[in-house]
Amino acid sequence: MSRRWQAVAVNAALIAGALLTLMPLAWMTAASFMQPGEANTLPPPLLPAEPTLGNYVTLFTRLDMLRNFLNSAVVSVLATVLSVVVVSLAGYAFAKLPFPGHERLFRALASALVVPAQVGMLPLFLLLRELGLVNTYGGVLVPYLASIFGIFLVRQYALSVPDELLDAARVDGASELQVFRLVAVPIIKPILVTLAAFTFLSAWNDFMWPLIVLADSSLYTLPVALAGLAGEHVQDTELMMAGSLLTILPALAVFLVFQRSYVQGITAGGVKG
Amino acid sequence: MSSRYEQAKTRAAWLFLTPALVLLGVFFLLPVVGGILLSLTDFDLYAVADFDAARFVGLANYAQLLQDGSFWRALTNTLQFVVIGGPLSVLVSLGAAMLLDHKAARLRGVLRTVYFAPVVTTLVSVAIVWRYLYHPKYGLLNHLLGLVGIGPIDWLGDARFAMPAIILLAVWKNFGYNMLIFLAGLQTIPAERYEAAAIDGAGAWQRFRHVTVPGLAPTALFVGVTTMIGFFQLFAEPYVMTQGGPLGATRSLVLLMYEEGFRWWRMGVSSAVAVLLLVITLVFTLLQLRLRRSET
């Protein structure tokens, strides 16, 4: 095969793949602007004949999804802020404050990555019930606060912080907390951004845990509310597509803004693995 | 540094680790151990109200599960999803990565973002979207298949097609993640190795077989293990798209665990399902590690 034909074939395959990948999202977007019932006609329309915002109006008025949107936002932002603090302290300690047994402890944590989170969900539910945290924001937050993967990520990155800088600050009389805040954090900031993007997206998109721990629909996060509506409104294709888009859009936006850091986090875990 | 600093460092280390360790201990480790203990009891709706109503029943929950057709069905469904869906998604990831890594590829940055987009979408949302795409009459997929003469398929309503339909969605949703890892892996293979192989007269397939595959081996091990662990946790897709049907054809282990625990409040049985999931995941992980180690 000549070089030119090879180039054509590669690029044609890449574009075909991109169209296939985008097709479900493009159809979702188009259908969300269709008139009620329009998506269920033949042949299936690809674009709305008379675009309408009516489905979005219904979402925010009759279905009160703004409330679910805010629930998701509160939970995801709180999870992100708290977990960045908890996880960065731990990751830094593993990298830069060696103590007897720290390697063994780290290996034990790393091996726990194999344990599926679902194994503990039922007892966690019972525990939170005893603590009065079932059906609260706090209850939803709990599993996102300390991620082993996050600790691993921060530790890898913090290993590259020069010890001389930390020691210099110590000689100047800085406490260990000051050394961390004033010397280490500015250097490891890129990985903290990565960690924040990861945590936000996993909290925003999560389904099973909020489904279990939340009972009142007024506290539901978007995915839980949406899954509930999907059962009641099976026929309302256009409305459900508007709800799906509303749920996906913030996640996509956060990803696009933080793309570089996010991608760095994925490959940092994978290649060294 | 003097020992005064060393002592301060050790103290600080424990101080810095305490929040994370306490959270992981109380909200992760304790529940996992609790789940194992719970699986040895008959904890149910009455015990939820009064913990003393639960009794130790040994391995009775496990015995019951192993005699229960719906458990075996959930296990084989999950294995089908893991054994077919996992490798399929890894292969698509590898294909996409190699195309993007090709010298002639244009618009790399944009295409990479496009391929990755499904990964960051909300699973519940895209499961709902795909449920409509799979609609036997109005769905886009059957419409497209109809254009090439393939009759309408009841994707989610036919027990033969429901799991393949969920696998297809999962491959679409996940391939971008491993694609990024493969791309990074491909870039660590020195160009000289390809050049040397070409000089030795190796064709495209031979270069792939003898340069790319060994170069990607460590990456592939990581990708294989993490993908498999993730695929064992199948839940939201069947929950949203099929509720485990038709006729239990898409009920996964995690869905079974959820239904036993939170619909029927049979928490002992539900915990036993969870523990078996853990054991199966561990066995498969060790198998994969052992297999790769003996290869190299």
CATH architecture of chain A: Orthogonal Bundle
CATH class designation of chain A: Mainly Alpha
Task: Please state the overall shape of chain B, judged from the principal axes of the Cα atoms.
Answer: globular
CATH first level of chain B: which class? Answer: Mainly Alpha
Give the CATH superfamily of chain A.
MetI-like
* Overall average pLDDT of chain B: 91
Instruction: Kindly identify the CATH topology of chain A.
Output: MetI-like fold
The pair of chains with the biggest contact is:
A-B, 97 and 97 residues
> How many DSSP helices of chain B?
13
Radius of gyration of chain A: 23 Å
Q: Which percent range describes the beta-strand content of chain B?
A: under 5%
Name the CATH superfamily classification of chain B. MetI-like
Q: Briefly note the structural class of the backbone of chain B.
A: mainly alpha
Tally of separate helices of chain A: 13
Biggest beta-sheet profile of chain B: none
Major sheet description of chain A: none
- Termini distance of chain B? 43 Å
Distance between the termini of chain A: 37 Å
Labels describing this entry:
heterodimer; A: 273 residues; MetI-like fold; 13 helices; 0% strand; B: 296 residues; mainly alpha
Walk me through this protein's architecture:
The complex is a heterodimer of chains A (273) and B (296). By secondary structure, chain A is mostly helical. Chain A has a single domain (65-272), classed as Orthogonal Bundle (MetI-like fold). Helix content of chain A is 72%, strand content 0%. Chain A has helices spanning 3-32, 54-60, 65-96, 102-111, 121-130, 137-141, 148-158, 163-171, 176-205, 208-213, 222-232, 237-257, 259-272. In chain A, α3 (65-96) crosses α7 (148-158), α7 packs across α9 and α9 crosses α13 (259-272). Chain A is globular, with a radius of gyration of 23 Å. The mean pLDDT of chain A is 91. With 296 residues, chain B is mainly alpha-helical. Chain B has one domain (68-295): MetI-like (MetI-like fold). Chain B is built from 13 helices and no strands. Chain B has helices at 3-38, 45-49, 60-66, 69-101, 108-120, 123-133, 140-147, 159-187, 191-199, 204-231, 236-241, 253-263, 267-295. The longest helix of chain B is centred in the first third of the chain and has 36 residues, at 3-38. Chain B is globular, with a radius of gyration of 24 Å.
